[in-house]
Amino acid sequence: MAVKEGDGGLRRLGRKLGRNWLPILIVSMLAIVAVVELNTPYMPVALWLCAVIAILAVRDGPAVASAKDGGNPAPETEEPEVPGENVISGVRAGLAVLDTPVFILDRNASVLFQNGAAERAFGQLPAGAHISARLRSPGLLDVIRETITTGQPNQVEHSERFPSERVFIVRIARADVGEGAAPPFYILSFRDVSELRRIDRMRSDFVANASHELRTPLASLRGFIETMQGPARNDPKAQERFLAIMLDQATRMSRLVDDLMSLSRLELRANIAPDQKVDLVPVIGHVRDTLLPLADELDVTITLHLPDRPAEVQGDRDELVQVFQNLVENACKYGQEGKVVDVWLRAEPGKPVEVSVIDKGPGIPAEHVPRLTERFYRVSVADSRSKKGTGLGLAIVKHILTRHRARLIIKSELGSGTDFTVRF
Ligand code: ADP
User: Fold this and answer.
1) Domains in the chain, number
2) Whether 281 and 416 share a structural domain
3) pTM of the entire structure?
């Protein structure tokens, strides 16, 4: 990319001679033998001179070229004064094919080369530009400076905000050229750890959320136990009321623990696709039967629309029961005021099998829809708790469907209701 112009013609000639010392030595020895044999210096010296000029002209090294030439060195017209340019051109060809961003810097921290990944990540830097023209973080510039001064490798974390938020571990190391007195160059490489950081954050959020969800009923249980040991010690009526609430809280905790365990079991099997054939017609029938008591309690009618032939998909029966149980239960709970829940099973030849669970409830505001399958995400925490929700139901649904290579499509209209469709 960047080619520094050399100034001393003599120094360049000296380096060329140094690089081609072996053929020049052989030609010189032949010339000496010829002088001795022919007894005249003119002819051998003239031939020796021609041979040396030819060697220097033919065995010239390549220039440092841009990343865009795909690593094919351009023919050199004027030899650039860059550290170990022969070596750099070899290194560059290797770096060009890497998909991690890499820069080669000289000892002034000017860019000699950037690979395609670096161009994509940071844009193309002008030839010979100082690295700070694009990367201005003082911490990063400090470690570059330090490595150039001490020769010791260094690494530092570097964040980019635009065009998107990314975190890199940046490493700078000196590469010794090993070509006589040629100065070293420095390799600046970037490892993108944004995804790892995001997963770490999700994990710690999850642990914090799970602990918080468990802590609330636990604190309430403790409070009631203390009250029953103290002020309500001799109040059987109050004790009875408290015991009912305590049972409720303990049930909530065990629901949460069950859901957490379901999620962790599913995570363990996330990459193993299920291999049974499951007919969804009896599965949907079973789900309706299980939820009839809840539907009656909420005064909701569950209507099934099933095909008159089997609707087979590849899957795990118990997990599919769990998916449709969650969806129909949510439709009954959150769409209660619509009074009806329709379940459509479509299995038309040549089309994917689909199950739609449709309620006529209040619907879900559009901004919440994309996040519904996140763990502990609820449109209204109070509403979910009052309906015995844990905030994990749709996360479990999504996990199961991912394992089944199926999709969950959510459509909702405020005031009209919600449609959760599973497409296999
Ligand atoms: P929860 O245990 O709270 O029911 P889910 O993961 O099953 O957790 O659902 C997440 C949230 O999605 C619910 O708290 C609720 O706000 C919303 N939701 C799910 N299904 C429906 C529906 N059919 N209608 C309206 N809102 C729904």
Assistant:
1) 4
2) yes
3) 0.65
Cα separation values, 313 from 272, 320, 323, 349, 405, Å: 16, 10, 14, 13, 11
Atom of ligand 1 nearest to the CA of 326: 7
The closest-lying atom of ligand 1 relative to the alpha carbon of residue 396 is 6
User: Mutation test of ligand 1: which of 251, 360, 367, 384 has the most ligand atoms closer than 8 Å to its C-beta?
Assistant: 384
392 in the same domain as 296: yes
Residues in the chain: 424
- Token pair belonging to 352: 């994917």
Residue nearest to atom 11 of ligand 1 (CA): 378
Residues of the domain holding 226: 203-268
Residues 366 and 336 in one domain: yes
Residue 28 Cα, ligand 1 centroid: separation in angstroms? 89
Phi, psi for 411 (deg, rounded to 5): -125, 130
109 torsion bin: left (phi>0), alpha (psi -120 to 50), beta (else): left
Both tokens of residue 282?
A: 């009896």
* Domain co-membership, 182 together with 207: no
User: Which H or E element spans position 292?
Assistant: helix 280-298
How many angstroms does the Cα of residue 400 sit away from the middle of ligand 1?
Answer: 17
Dump pLDDT digits (tens) for 359-417.
999 999 999 999 999 999 999 998 998 998 999 999 999 999 999 999 999 999 999 99
Q: Which amino acid is at 339?
A: K
* Tens digit of each residue's pLDDT (9 = 90 or more) over 2-38: 334 444 556 667 666 766 766 677 767 777 767 776 6
**Whether 254 and 142 share a structural domain:** no
**Residue 9 domain flag:** yes
- Tell whether 281 and 417 lie within a shared domain: yes
361 lines ligand 1 (CB under 6 A): yes
Q: Is the CB of 249 under 6 A from ligand 1?
A: no
Do 181 and 92 reside in the same domain of the chain? yes
The CATH number for 121's domain is 3.30.450.20
Residues 419 and 281 in one domain: yes
Asked, for residue 214, whether it belongs to a domain, the answer is yes
Average pLDDT over residues 120-143: 92
Ligand 1 near 300 CB (within 6 A): no
Residue nearest to atom 5 of ligand 1 (CA): 393
Higher pLDDT, 148 or 11: 148
